[in-house]
């Protein structure tokens, strides 16, 4: 994992800074792959595109009260592509294929304090690695009712109208531009 993060070619200053912070956390902590590290831990996300790159499959996150990408905690797994792939299936029911096995984005995300399953979770950082996937728009989707209340293909042109988390909009824009550049 550390090797892939170190070899990632940052596209801008934000990613350069986040890459440095991720590598520093790996160096400083021996538990960044688990939630035992309540300061910062690794997560992996999947941005799921249709073949035409006009729509993305998103879930409605109950905790964030917004439409967003799929993803989850590494929970000890160093293969972050496997984590993202697992989360895509768990959160949408869709079998998606990686567009590339390469990381497409590095982002250090602030997670505000919240309550999850009746337990208070202090604010912390998600050291997030993102991968791009492609899925068939006609595939049946399945709602994971434990964490989400919606699964839908959203038009990329209308994405900002659906996303309530302002800090995520530029990240999604960055991911869309990167994936379209790959096509």
UniProtKB/TrEMBL annotation:
One of its GO terms (molecular function) is hydrolase activity. Pfam families: NUDIX (PF00293). Coiled coil: none annotated. Belongs to the Nudix hydrolase family. The lineage of its organism: Bacteria, Bacillati, Bacillota, Bacilli, Bacillales. This is NUDIX hydrolase. Residues 39-177 form the Nudix hydrolase domain. InterPro entries: NUDIX_hydrolase-like_dom_sf, NUDIX_hydrolase_dom. The keyword Nucleotide-binding does not apply. Keywords: Hydrolase. It comes from Caryophanon latum. PANTHER family: ADP-RIBOSE PYROPHOSPHATASE, DIHYDRONEOPTERIN TRIPHOSPHATE DIPHOSPHATASE.
């Amino acid at each position: 994992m550390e090797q892939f993060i170190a070899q990632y070619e940052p596209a801008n200053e934000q990613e350069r800074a986040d890459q440095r912070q991720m590598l520093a956390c790996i160096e400083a902590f021996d538990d960044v792959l688990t939630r035992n590290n309540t300061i910062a831990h690794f997560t992996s996300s999947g941005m799921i595109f249709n073949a035409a790159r006009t729509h993305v499959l998103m879930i409605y996150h109950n905790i964030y009260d917004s439409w967003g990408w799929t993803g989850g905690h590494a929970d000890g797994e160093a293969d972050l592509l496997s984590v993202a792939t697992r989360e895509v299936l768990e959160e949408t029911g869709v079998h998606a294929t990686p567009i590339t096995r390469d990381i497409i984005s590095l982002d250090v995300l602030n997670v505000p304090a919240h309550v999850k399953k009746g337990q208070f979770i202090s604010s912390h950082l998600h050291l997030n690695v993102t991968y791009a996937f492609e899925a068939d728009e006609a595939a049946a989707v399945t709602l994971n009712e434990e964490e989400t209340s919606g699964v839908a293909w959203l038009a990329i042109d209308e994405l900002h109208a659906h996303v309530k988390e302002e800090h995520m909009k530029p990240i999604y824009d960055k991911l869309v531009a990167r994936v379209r550049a790959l096509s």
